[in-house]
Design goal:
There is one protein chain. The protein contains five helices and ten strands; from the N terminus they run ββαβααββαβαββββ. The chain has a single domain, classed as Dihydrofolate Reductase, subunit A, CATH 3.40.430.10. With about 190 residues, the chain is an alpha/beta fold. The longest helix is centred in the first third of the chain and has 13 residues. α1 packs parallel to α3.
């Protein structure tokens, strides 16, 4: 039986996963509903899947954070305590993550195998280039976009779908969090 793979990503309205300059995490738009929702997404058993660059970024952010910083929000702490597979040809074990395994090889092959062998759903937060490749291979079952009410035209970084294939999206669910942030859950299908 194949488990569900969810690509979970934060985005500005103009499609960037991050921004430079004076933007803070969540683009400064986090609120109690958003943080509660994020925590609920990580309250059940699942396996995280990361590419090497995102994994490095998470471990750097966590190492530089304090208990009071937004990096240590309860959902991020819970995410870090879930089992994780890191797809990388450059990282080597042991990793600075409680339960992470490094798997070398092509992400499409690794995730196809994980989908067949895993007893729990798979989730990836970030890992943009890896998830674009997985979407093109038909391995992403759910795309969950948390859309923050900002435009980062001058400072946007990490265009989420730049270079991706074309997809039709079936809207499965929408939520408004804190009266301003939108969460969209889609089922992607390669556009033919």
């Amino acid at each position: 039986m194949t488990v569900t793979y969810t690509f979970d990503v934060f985005s500005s309205l103009d499609g960037f996963g991050a921004a430079s300059a004076n933007w803070t995490g969540y683009w400064g738009k986090q609120g109690p509903e958003l943080l509660d929702r994020r925590l609920s997404l990580y309250d059940h058993e699942q396996r995280m899947v990361f590419g090497a660059n995102t994994f490095r970024a998470f471990t750097r952010m966590l190492a530089a954070s304090t208990e009071e910083s937004e990096v240590r929000d309860p959902w991020a702490t819970r995410m870090c305590n879930l089992p994780a597979t890191v797809v990388s040809t450059t990282l080597k074990a042991p990793l600075d993550w409680p339960d992470a395994t490094v798997v070398s090889g092509d992400a499409v092959d690794v995730v196809a195998r994980l989908k067949e062998e895993s007893d729990v759903p798979l989730r990836s937060h970030g890992s943009l280039s890896m998830n674009r490749a997985l979407m093109a291979a038909g391995l992403v079952d759910i795309v969950q976009v948390t859309l923050f009410p900002v435009i980062t035209g001058e400072t946007g970084q990490d265009p989420i779908f730049q270079g991706a294939a074309d997809f039709d999206l079936e809207l499965l669910e929408t939520r408004t969090l804190d009266g301003r942030t939108q969460e969209f859950t889609y089922r992607p299908t390669l556009h033919k």
